[in-house]
Amino acid sequence: MSTQNPRPAGSESPLAALARLGITLPNPAKPVAAYVPTRLVGNLLYISGQIPVMNGQPIAKGLVPREVSIETAVSCARQCTLNALAAANEALKDRGGLNAVRSVVRVGAFVACEAGFADHPKIANGASELLVEVFGESGKHARAAVGAPSLPLNVPVEIEFVFEVG
Amino acid sequence: MSTQNPRPAGSESPLAALARLGITLPNPAKPVAAYVPTRLVGNLLYISGQIPVMNGQPIAKGLVPREVSIETAVSCARQCTLNALAAANEALKDRGGLNAVRSVVRVGAFVACEAGFADHPKIANGASELLVEVFGESGKHARAAVGAPSLPLNVPVEIEFVFEVG
Amino acid sequence: MSTQNPRPAGSESPLAALARLGITLPNPAKPVAAYVPTRLVGNLLYISGQIPVMNGQPIAKGLVPREVSIETAVSCARQCTLNALAAANEALKDRGGLNAVRSVVRVGAFVACEAGFADHPKIANGASELLVEVFGESGKHARAAVGAPSLPLNVPVEIEFVFEVG
Fold this sequence. Notes:
The structure is a homotrimer.
Chain A: H1 14-20, E1 38-41, E2 44-50, E3 53-54, E4 57-58, H2 70-91, E5 101-112, H3 120-135, E6 142-148, E7 157-165
Parallel strand pairs in A: 5-6
Antiparallel strand pairs in A: 1-2, 2-7, 3-4, 5-7
Helix pairs in contact in A: 2-3
């Protein structure tokens, strides 16, 4: 569990898992200004903090749980992850896209909330569970989930990722 | 200081240092759901954000310094670090446990607090100083310490780590 | 863009770019206590969270935008980055200083702000744009920008970095 956990030979590929799950990846976001969606260094793919945008628009705005329900925030975490998968698939397109991902290393989740909020892990599970659906055991990762008073565009969730490339 | 700083040959091992310091590691936390306590990729061990739980219960809850004193928050940072050491020791058990740690690379500390709080470094020192007690010079690390409006289970401190494995 | 993007042979060196831009690096900060300004592991240089100090004093304090304007916060992000460049230049002094940097991998930016703030990316651009001025295309990085209720010394911006060393 804590040692490297690459996808076993013969196991379902991430792209096949997405197809089985009926998930179509969103279009990868265009690079913006002076930073980029992903950076590959050695076999580590760093993915920029993803926000829950769909077709260019935030799917929710505000604080959890006062303005955005836990349930919606979980969906937001899932959307951040879909956007990350799309970015990784695009970044790795010359290597087979997401099928070149060997494992998920780290997830860093930020939830917009106030003092006293305690359910950050519940929100972050929206990301973690999708990663395990897509990558199986090798989708299990180290994770930090914390609060923030606000996030870019006033979205309720932002998540960054490190993937291992095979 | 800024170059790699592995433990010199013949220096005290981390497990010997723990024994000398009279520190017994807590039981490693059970893996939860879709994420895991640690992930090893190459020679980097990513350790999930640790919270100050002891025997499964938070040792403090609330904001620093209004609800949790600086002194207690420092103890919380130390407890987070003990939990990280336990997780790393378990993850590396087939390689000699913590003795397989070559250096500490990064510490990311989050402190639950309000606007105007300025003493995040003082809290994070509870982690940093323990790491140097256990690993000596090779325990010195890059660090970020920042505020958060709240953290999982309403604890006052969460800390994540990257260790180098030898 | 998402693949490794090292400086092309024959391109302007980072130190030459700094000279052309008329930028003199600040003196590197002294190491404090149990953590260090940078840690090199393999070819990754982790740089501790930098705050906007100049000659040892914060150049601004408080929340964005209520107490610190967006414009000032952008300058703070730039100052954090100058301090990071100084730390990296010092860390790599036996290898040619900043000229040993092959690319910028990750930028993690924290902005002290309140609920409803949405312009974290604008602030973080103060760091990202300087990195591209100095390193060219290889300065483009993965990035996360988030809010925090407060930061060390009550500064408005803290930024940590991962550089790739060539």
